[in-house]
């Protein structure tokens, strides 16, 4: 029953404080994701929105399955709170929810579950929002008796490869691989799983495992993740931390026919800073993960590492 609640009922919601993604005249200044939420006889999810500013903010909410939540938009006045409840009745419906706003707001998911329809709610958890990321690390705890485990939910904004690395408690790499995941409109745009379900061969005969899971996405700031520790029907949020990879300078050369100033818009898309531009290329400041994603962009010919101050 516990695993069914995690995988099918999706006891995972993202909410919180992402970095604003700036655009011109578009409702995408701030983006956070609830990678997998659900409603049905066994689960009730309430999404809480709070405007933390002194000015009104337009908000748009969209789910991957309209049976879960039809697209909606509304205005939040200064310091206004609004609750959006997904009722705990009927057949199970699950999916991901994406929130856009003109400026930073607070978003969280409050989840209640029960073991049988009409019964009392037995589990409660609140999870704060996560922004779109390029690389994160999650602490992992597992015991083979099935009582202790770590559940993970992922949402993919764009199509790309998910690079997966598992480390033991002292930081040794013990497993790695990659999976192709899709973006909006693709059936693989989100996933939810227990640690032992994805990594059964790694665990083998181990009774327990403590370590970390590192996830990197090859397409810019293209995915979001959340995680919960489970013990029976109890849940606690696990910290999803952006990997602190050092930022460096890279020279970006554009594909013939593409102007260098196209990088101004790409800097929003991928999350890098443009240091300086010339007729042939631009020097940008970002992590290696982002630089690799930029080099895969068809508008880019090649990316070369520059010196520590932006000079070879």
Q: Any chance you could write out the topology, listing elements then pairs?
A:
Layout (H helix, E strand, L loop, with lengths): L1 H6 L22 E10 L3 E8 L6 E7 L8 E5 L4 E6 L6 E9 L4 E8 L9 E6 L1 E2 L3 E9 L4 E9 L3 E9 L4 E9 L8 E5 H4 L1 H4 L4 E10 L5 E9 L2 E5 L2 E2 L5 E7 L7 H9 L2 E5 L3 E6 L1 H8 L4 E6 L7
Antiparallel strand pairs: 1-6, 1-9, 2-5, 2-7, 3-4, 3-6, 7-8, 10-15, 10-18, 11-14, 11-16, 12-13, 12-15, 16-17, 19-21, 19-22, 20-21
Structural overview:
There is one protein chain. The protein has helices at 2-7, 195-198, 200-203, 262-270, 288-295, and strands at 30-39, 43-50, 57-63, 72-76, 81-86, 93-101, 106-113, 123-128, 130-131, 135-143, 148-156, 160-168, 173-181, 190-194, 208-217, 223-231, 234-238, 241-242, 248-254, 273-277, 281-286, 300-305. With 312 residues, the protein is mainly beta. A 5-stranded antiparallel β-sheet has the order 4-3-6-1-9, with no helix packed on it. A 5-stranded antiparallel β-sheet has the order 13-12-15-10-18, with no helix packed on it. Strands 5-2-7-8 form a 4-stranded antiparallel β-sheet, with no helix packed on it.
Main β-sheet, spatial strand arrangement: 4-3-6-1-9
Q: Biggest β-sheet, characterized?
A: 5 strands, antiparallel
The rounded distance between the terminal residues' Cα atoms is 58 Å
* Portion in strands: over 45%
Estimate percent helicity: under 10%
Let me know the average pLDDT. Answer: 81
Report the C-alpha radius of gyration, rounded. Answer: 21 Å
Q: How many β-strand runs?
A: 22
Number of helices: 5
